[in-house]
Amino acid sequence: MAGLTKGTGAMRLARRAATTAMLALCIAAAPALAQNDKMTPIATPAQPTAITLDTGPLPDAKAPEAWHSQYGSVFARNVTVATLTPFLPDPARANGTAVIIAPGGGFRTLSMENEGWNVAKALAAKGVAAFVLKYRLNPTPADMAGFEESMRQMFSGTAARPPRASIEDASKALAPQIADARAAFALIRRRANEWRVDPQRIGMVGFSAGAMLTMSTAIWGEDAKPAFIGNVYGPLAAMTPPADAPPLFVALAADDPFFANSGYGLIDAWRAAKRPVEFHLYEQGGHGFGMYQKETTSTGWFEAFASWMKMHGFIKP
User: Fold this and answer.
1) Is 44 inside any structural domain?
2) What domain count does the chain have?
C-alpha cells in the first residue's frame, strides 16, 4: 500500500474517485434522533497525551485542523498529522490487551468523543489499554460555512453519484489512513512493556468509515496484523479474508440508512473461510449510535463487544 501514496496522476484520479465513492458509503456519524443539530466551531481541545505518529503531514493539504461540536459531541476535521492518544487502565487491572479505536466521519471528519474517547474510557475501565487513532482526513473547506455547503452538495438528492466501489477498490484510496494505522500498531508494540501490553494481543475497532479502515488494515495493513477486529456500523460488502483473518465482531442496526440493506457478504465471507465472526443486528439504532445512551438495544453493543473479547480470552475474568 505504501507505493500508492506517490502514485501517478492517473492513480491519484482513481484514488480520488474511489474515495468519493466511499464518502457516499461512510458519511459523518450522527445519532438518528438529532439529524438537524448545527455544527458549531470550537477551540481545539487540549490533548496533552496525544502522540504524533511518524507518517508525516498529508501532502497538498492546505486548511488547518479544525474542531466543532455537533449532536452533543466533539468532531475534528482537516486532520493533516496523525496522532495516537493512550487511555491506559489502572495497572492493577491491566490485562495485557490493547485496542486501537478508529472513529468514523466519512473520511472528512472524526467523531472523536462519541466514537473515540468515550469508547477508550470504557475499555480502560475493563483493564484494556485503549488508543484513539486520529487519522489523516480528506481536505475540506477551512471555513464552517464552506464545509457545511460541501456536505450539503455531496449528499443532496441532485448530486452525481459515482459508481459504488468495491471494498478492495475503495481501500486503495486509503493508503494514508492505512499507513497511520500501521504506525499506531508499531508504536504500541515498541512501547508494549511501558504500557503493559502483550504485542500479540492488539486489536482494532472502527465505526462507519473507521470500520472501513479497520477492515482494510486487517487485510492490507501488512505488518499491522490485529489480533481481533470490530466493525461497528461499517460496510458489510463481501471481501476475501486472508487465511489467518482475525476474529471479527460486527454490530449494525437494522434501520441503518446506509448499510442495513446491502446484504451481509462480509459475514458470509468470514464464515466461508471458517474464521471466527459474531454478528449483532439490532432492530433499531440508526447510524452513528456509538456510545450515545439511547432507548434502543443498540446501546448494548459495547457490553456485547466486551463479552466477545472475554470469550476469546482478551479480557480476563
Assistant:
1) no
2) 1
N- to C-terminal Cα distance for the chain? 38
Looking at residue 155, its pLDDT comes to: 67
User: Would residue 14 count as lying in a domain?
Assistant: yes
Q: How far is CA 172 from CA 90, 93, 97, 213, 271, in A?
A: 39, 39, 29, 11, 25
User: What CATH number is given to the structural domain containing 279?
Assistant: 3.40.50.1820
* Alpha-carbon gap, residue 81 to 78, rounded angstroms: 9
Chain mean position to CA 132: 10
pLDDT tens per residue across span 183-213: 999 999 999 999 999 999 999 999 999 999 9
pTM of the entire structure? 0.89
DSSP-assigned letters across all residues of 74-132: EEEE---S-EEEEEPPPTTT--S-EEEEE--STTTEE-TIIIIIHHHHHHHTTT-EEEE
